[in-house]
Amino acid sequence: SNPLLPLPVLQAAHCQMIKDLSACLLGQNLRVDCRYENKTDNPLTYEFSITKDNRKHVIHSTISVSENIYRSRANVTMHKNLVCLHLQSFTTSDEGIYMCELRATNDYTGNQIKNITVIKDKLEKCAGFSLLIQNTSWLLLLLLSLPLLQAVDFVSL
């Protein structure tokens, strides 16, 4: 058998596969997680958009220009195998079909797109590590500031 046979198949599979798109509420903010399987080290570009009333609005993107109404409220964080959209002050007017689009530089296998319908009343609260980290940091800040507060009180006496 020819050991070189599988190579062309591997070449064709060089593409960012979006595995999962999920949305949740973190306080008043919407978080949309776009999980992917990384198959190349090439730089990754992304686009988060929303379709409502049959019109597409770009929320945050490295592919095209985002709309003003979203630009000030949105930011994106990138982790290993996860591109995460954070939209502040999420209201029912932000409901719609959210789309995550990923594209790897010099990847000719086309872009990866996945949709999720986001409705405020049906959103679950974000669980997991990010919430924990946020809460912990608040707690830590509080604990660290307690001696300071006491010191200030002491001085004013």
From TrEMBL:
It comes from the Eukaryota. GO terms for biological process: cell adhesion; integrin-mediated signaling pathway; positive regulation of focal adhesion assembly; regulation of cell migration. It is a lipid-anchor; GPI-anchor. It is found in: Cell membrane. Gene3D superfamilies: Immunoglobulins. The keyword Signal applies. GO terms for cellular component: dendrite; external side of plasma membrane; focal adhesion; membrane raft; myelin sheath. GO terms for molecular function: GTPase activator activity; integrin binding. Keywords: Cell membrane, Disulfide bond, Glycoprotein, GPI-anchor, Immunoglobulin domain, Lipoprotein, Membrane, Pyrrolidone carboxylic acid, Signal. Residues 29-102 form the Immunoglobulin V-set domain. Pfam families: V-set. May play a role in cell-cell or cell-ligand interactions during synaptogenesis and other events in the brain. This is Thy-1 membrane glycoprotein. It comes from Nicator chloris. The gene is Thy1.
